[in-house]
């Protein structure tokens, strides 16, 4: 019997957003016929989303990624640091080509009711290591994979420049480390730097 674990963040007007980004707004409209629809305004990196190459100043959008990257086996890893995940912390994991790696950190444990000014992030050196290992996808349990105030954007560019998508804003608080099937298909936006995603893990 399979268990489906929703690792997506809920989308609503009070959801936390990265400071300075567009706030999420729902504008409900009722037509004279009585039918209802909603105009939705939000940022391309709100909630659970995929970073595309153009987010790091490259030319392509999220639609340049093959959908195959977002479906298949993944590994959830944890206990790699409380401030910055360093390359040295990855050496013992035996990460191989084609893996999808999701980082569970203290970010998940404190929740997503508000935006925190500090979070556990991935170092540029660790991102470069993952790119060298030729992983398929990297995910992290916060709104950004890069450490706030980092001197460079390597946490993004090392991965996106070689076609490795970044899955941000996943909630792994109810997920144990181990192997799962990931389903995280981005919406079919064309040419955008980010795409909202409903991400789930399936445990057999």
Give a short summary of the structure.
The protein is α/β, with parallel strands linked by helices and 204 residues long. Helix content is 12%, strand content 27%.
Task: Walk me through what this model shows.
- The chain is an alpha/beta fold.
- The protein has a single domain, classed as Putative cyclase (Glucose Oxidase, domain 1).
- The chain contains 4 helices and 13 strands.
- Strands 1-13-11-5-7-9-10-4-12 form a 9-stranded mixed β-sheet. It has a two-stranded antiparallel ribbon with strand order 2-3. Strands 6-8 form a two-stranded parallel ribbon.
- A hairpin with a 5-residue loop joins strand 2 and strand 3.
- The longest helix is centred in the middle third of the chain and has 9 residues.
- The mean pLDDT is 95.
Furnish the topology, listing elements before pairings.
Layout lengths: L2 E4 L18 E6 L5 E6 L7 E3 L19 E8 L5 E2 L1 H4 L9 E5 L1 H5 L10 E2 L1 H9 L4 E4 L13 H7 L5 E3 L9 E6 L10 E3 L3 E4 L1
Parallel strand pairs: 5-7, 6-8, 7-9, 9-10
Antiparallel strand pairs: 1-13, 2-3, 4-10, 4-12, 5-11, 11-13
Helix pairs in contact: 3-4
């Amino acid at each position: 019997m399979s268990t489906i674990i929703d690792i997506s963040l809920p989308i609503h007007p009070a959801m936390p957003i990265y400071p300075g980004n567009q706030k999420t707004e729902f504008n409900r409209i009722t037509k004279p016929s009585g039918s209802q629809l909603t105009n939705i305004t939000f940022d391309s990196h709100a909630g659970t989303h995929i970073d595309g190459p153009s987010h790091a100043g490259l030319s392509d959008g999220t639609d340049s990624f093959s959908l195959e990257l977002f479906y298949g086996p993944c590994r959830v890893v944890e206990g790699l640091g409380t401030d910055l995940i360093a390359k040295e912390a990855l050496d013992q994991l035996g990460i191989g080509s084609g893996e999808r790696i999701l980082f569970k950190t203290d970010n998940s444990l404190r929740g997503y009711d508000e935006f925190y000014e500090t979070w556990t992030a991935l170092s540029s050196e660790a991102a470069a290591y993952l790119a060298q290992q030729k992983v398929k996808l990297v995910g992290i349990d916060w709104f950004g994979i890069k450490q706030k105030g980092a001197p460079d954007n390597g946490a993004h560019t090392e991965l996106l420049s070689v076609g490795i998508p970044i899955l941000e804003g996943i909630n792994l608080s109810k997920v144990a480390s181990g192997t799962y099937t990931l389903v995280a298909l981005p919406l079919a936006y064309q040419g955008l730097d980010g795409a909202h995603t409903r991400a789930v893990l399936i445990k057999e």
